[in-house]
Amino acid sequence: MLKLGSHVSLSSSSAGLLGAAKEAYSYGADTFMVYTGAPQNTRRSALDKLKIPEALDFMSQHNLSDIVVHAPYIINLASCKEDTYNLAREFLAVELQRAHAFGANYVVLHPGAFTTSTAQSGIERIIAGLNEVIQEHLPIVCLETMAGKGTEIGRNFEELSAIINGIKLQDKIGVCLDTCHMHDSGYDIVNNFDGVMEDFDNKVGQQFIKVLHINGSINICGAKKDRHANIGATSDNPRGEDKIGLQALHKIIRHPVFDNKPLILETPWLDDKHNLYKEEIALLRGEL
Length: 288
Prior knowledge:
Blueprint: E1 3-7, H1 16-26, E2 31-34, H2 52-61, E3 68-70, H3 82-102, E4 106-109, H4 119-133, E5 140-144, H5 157-165, E6 173-178, H6 179-185, H7 193-203, E7 209-214, E8 216-217, E9 228-229, H8 246-253, E10 262-265, H9 276-285
Parallel strand pairs: 1-2, 1-10, 2-3, 3-4, 4-5, 5-6, 6-7, 7-10
Antiparallel strand pairs: 8-9
Helix pairs in contact: 1-2, 3-4, 4-5
C-alpha cells in the first residue's frame, strides 16, 4: 500500500489534533506528520486541550493511520554543552510521552550537531541520551538522514549505524530517510536508488527504515545545503527547480521497502492560493 501524507499544522489550539487530522484528510492523505507544538521552543499546550480523542475517532473513520510526530529542532543530543544536552534529553522524554498520547507510532529526530566537539563524541552523547529516554511502551525514535551541513550528525549511513548499534532497545529505534537530505549529502538516489538501498542495508539494515520524508531539492547531488523543492518544480518556481525530479520520486516511493509505511511530504508551502500538498499527493499517486 502507498501510504502518503504531509506535514500538517497543530498551530490552532482550539482545533488541536482534530484540526490536523481534518486538514490531512482534505489533502487526500492516508497519514500525516505534526509537531506537538512550535518546533523552535518548549512551550506546549496541555494535552486535554488538543481534542485527541475526537481526532483519533476521526482518523479511524477516515482511514488515517501511522501518524508521525517530528521532534523540535531545539533538541540537540550531540551537544557538548551540558545545559543544551540536558534540555535535549529532558524535552525529548516529554515529546515521546506527548507523541504516545497522540497515538503516534514514530517520532522523527534530527540526531544533532557536535559543534565544537567531534563526531565521535557527538555520537556517544546521542547514544547515551537515547538510552535514557527510549522506553518499550513509547513510540519508535526515527533518526533522520541529514544533508551534511556544518557539524550535523546523520549525514551518512555509517553515522546512523554507529548510533543504532549503541541503542539497548533495538526495536524502539529506526530511521527516517529524507530524499532531499540524501541527495544533498551525496547519495545518488536519482540514478541508482536501488544501489543506495543496498548500501543502506549492508551498513544499517533495511528493517530499521520506518518513515520517508519526500522532498525535491534545488541543489545538485552532494551540495550539502538542505534546500527543499516542490515536487517536479521547474526553473520558474519561486523556490527553485527540483533537481531530483518527479520520475525519480515516483520510483523511490514505490520501492518495496516503503510499502505500507508513512511517506510524508515536507515540500515548501508557497502561498494559500495553491493547495500544494493536495496537488503533490495526487501527483505522486499518478492522478495528475
